[in-house]
Amino acid sequence: MSKITIIGAGSVGATIAYTTAINGVANEIVLIDINREKALGEALDIVQGVPFCYPCTIYAGDYPDAVGSDIVVITSGLPRKAGQSRLELAQTNVNITKEIIPQITKYAPSAKYIIVSNPVDILTYTFCKCSDLPENQIIGSGTILDTSRLRACLSDHYDVSQKNVHAYVMGEHGDSSFIPWSVANISNIPLEDYPNSVSGKGAVYPPLNKEEVTDFVKKSGSKVIARKGATFYAVSMSVAHICKCLLNPIDTTMMISTMMHGEYGIDDVCLSVLCAVNNTGVRNKILMPITDEERAQLQKSADALKEVINGLSF
After folding, report:
1. Is the preceding omega at residue 119 within 30 degrees of 0, hence cis?
2. For 146-151, what is the mean pLDDT?
3. Would you say the pTM of this structure is higher than 0.90?
4. Which of 54, 73, 105, 111 has a CA-to-CA distance to 140 between 20 and 30 Å?
């Protein structure tokens, strides 16, 4: 039996509830929102479709209903608007997160916490600094979505399953993120060698423009927001994946935002590097053999986040 509490029943929170329900990730899902009618409506809408998928109890509740949660997902906060950077949201959503922390951790002190609200790295840092929870229980969704966007793009370019593409986006979930191309590969074949490794008719691939790919990954969210007002499907699928892995005793590696303690020479900031997670939370950070130039890019990302942190009140 597994229980997930989702704080925030807006588009992202409700879609996470829907996605985890249809994938059978949890047996019990609690939706908490300051707008209780919205939470009630979302829960009712989802639960009426449960007979077509895995058995699951879904209901709107309050903080005491989070007792016994295995995972708590935080999606509350003001959404990002078109043309607005994630970091511009910082202080407002830091304040909201600080209000939520004591109310939820009182009832679910042993849960693993997934921070999804933006700016996710700043709010993950806030959770680490303002709660008394062990850091291995605190996870920011970070660049797991950026990584998914990158893999989708490369999959399309090379006409190969996304499951065979191993490439990552590191650093901030935002403007200073970067792609460590040195470790990107398709089925263990370095990305740049892949076209020459494929034999057979029709195996011709156009040159990969790395700048265009990087630009696509960084601007995907803004493009979706400009066209439909918000992003919630892909992020919900990525969070459901994190939840599934946090309920499994076997380690799974993924790009998530956690507190840094000297890895790559970076300390006292939350950003995304490759981590191993299981049902105990964050188990380890996996230090990939990135180049010196890529290390410098990661440091630049850390510095950008620290600049914002230094201007905030926690």
Report:
1. yes
2. 97
3. yes
4. 54
